[in-house]
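A quick word before the example. In earlier lectures we treated sequence and structure as two separate objects. From today on, think of them as two lines of the same record. Here is Oxidoreductase molybdopterin-binding domain-containing protein written that way.
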Amino acid sequence: MTRRSRRTFLVGGLAALAGLGGWRWLLGQPEVMDIPGPLRAGLEANARVAATLLSPTQLAPEFPRNQARTPRANGSVGLKQPLDVAAWRLRVEGFGGQPVREFSLAELQALPRTEMTTELKCIEGWSTVVTWAGVRLTDFLARYPLATLPSAEIAPYVSLRTPDDAYYVGLDMVSALHPQTLLCYEMNGRPLLPEHGAPLRLITPRKYGIKQLKRIGTLAFVAERPADYWAARGYDWHASL
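And the structure line, produced from the sequence above:
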């Protein structure tokens, strides 16, 4: 028993030293987007798997409307400028150098309205069931084909930014065209409040809340993967559930 205890102690000690050495090696590697390169490579590998599995037929669960509650108003980056809803416009930069278009809230509200009650999940670990309403991005693009060139080539990515460019997210086009991706202007039957992204925010319930940008100012269809606020700070670019 004494020999076995000593052997166990030595093996455990060597394993701990190896683990410490490995951790120090990992922390010493060059950083890629704010985290050690090997960790970023692992995140990217997971993201590729998630992107392969994502399908328009895979929907986030929906709930009875009476379960809807008001979520926390997490995050104020991009919301600090005074808001004038009447003067606000959605600026859309079309793919391939198409002319920039601007849309009022009334123009967006004139498009087909979609309502859904889904779960808003925060990367911090909490979640809330919320009823959202707005126009699906697919319906917006059906009316205004700003993501497609005359050759039928479609933009592979979408960039969204707040009016002050302080907060920004990127989506792959598969996620953007998911049937539950909304340009949302109502929450629980009422217009969005400023702290929840008025007058227009992104809702995409197959991703964490860090992707669901509040107060959209600019929507751009682009050829290269756009920058993302939290990915630049070490988080997974896709942030898929």
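Notice the following. The mean pLDDT is 90. We will return to this example when we discuss secondary structure assignment.
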